[in-house]
Design brief:
This protein has about 230 residues and is α+β, with helices and mostly antiparallel strands. The chain folds into two domains: about 15-120, Jelly Rolls, CATH 2.60.120; about 135-230, Orthogonal Bundle (Arc Repressor Mutant, subunit A), CATH 1.10.10. It is about 35% helix and about 20% strand. The chain has helices at about 110-120, 135-140, 150-155, 160-170, 175-195, 200-205, 210-220, 225-230, and strands spanning about 15-20, 25-30, 35-40, 45, 50-55, 60, 70, 75-85, 95. It has a five-stranded antiparallel beta sheet with strand order 1-8-3-6-9, covered by helices on one side. Strands 2-7-4-5 form a four-stranded antiparallel beta sheet, with no helix packed on it. Helix 5 runs antiparallel to helix 6. The longest helix has 18 residues, at about 175-195.
């Protein structure tokens, strides 16, 4: 992607900030590079006329002088580092956010240079398939009593089960079924603590029987339904 002519950056050291956006921003360019990825949610981008996006697992280097516009849904939180010309900031590229940095906000004044170095050394990745987590989370939460296998969840976002599994785990650090199990058990703990019977909770949340829910609570949460009601 061609780099446009630009004035020398006034920046001499990286400056990191955490930003939230609401709505679409028209295309513009900076006299410094920007390195960005999502701490929460995702952002649609248009970089030099090409569509792209960033999320919690995939970031983007936007060189100085390259026009870009963006659109983020409400609630999206982005880590943006404005950087002077450095090795690795002179070309548009997509990178894999290191697992140790995902969802972690740096100490903005002290860690910007170290954080930037880790991102610039991160491996380049090919374009990732988009995955809107919220679409899946809302649909599943509305009908936890139904059978949610991985293929059905993948169909919601038009991905193959295999690709969906990889992207979901990359973005949440859980497999789809691990996430579903935790969601159901969180809901079970909540309704049981409010006094709902174990039988009704199991029926509402997709368990075959009250004993299956009781076993899952003991195995994964080390707690029994009676203890939840007492609490």
């Amino acid at each position: 992607m061609a780099r446009q002519a630009h004035s020398p950056s006034a920046l001499t050291t990286p400056v990191a900030s955490i930003r939230q956006y609401s709505g679409e921003h028209t295309a513009h360019a900076h006299d410094h590079a920007q390195i960005l990825y999502a701490l929460q949610g995702r952002m649609e981008l248009e970089v030099a006329g090409r569509a792209a996006f960033v999320d919690t697992a995939c970031g983007m280097v936007v060189p100085a002088g390259v026009e870009h516009g963006f659109l983020a849904a409400p609630g999206a939180q982005l880590l943006v580092i404005d950087a002077p010309d450095l090795r690795g900031t002179d070309r548009t590229r997509r990178f894999s956010v290191p697992a140790t940095l995902r969802g972690v906000a740096p100490e903005l004044e002290t860690d910007a240079s170290q954080h930037l170095a880790a991102l610039l050394d991160a491996p380049r990745v090919l374009a990732r398939r988009e995955l809107d987590l919220q679409i899946v989370k809302v649909q599943v939460a509305r009908s936890l009593h139904e059978d949610w296998n991985t293929r059905r969840m993948a169909d919601l976002v038009h991905l193959s089960p295999q690709r969906f599994h990889v992207r979901w785990q990359e973005l949440t650090d859980k497999t789809p079924q691990q996430w579903l199990r935790d969601l159901r058990l969180d809901a079970a703990q909540s309704v049981l603590a409010r006094g709902e019977s174990l039988e009704n909770a199991a029926l509402r949340l997709g368990y075959r029987s009250a004993s299956a829910l009781a076993f899952a609570l003991r195995r994964d949460r080390k707690i029994g339904a009676r203890d939840l009601r007492k609490a």
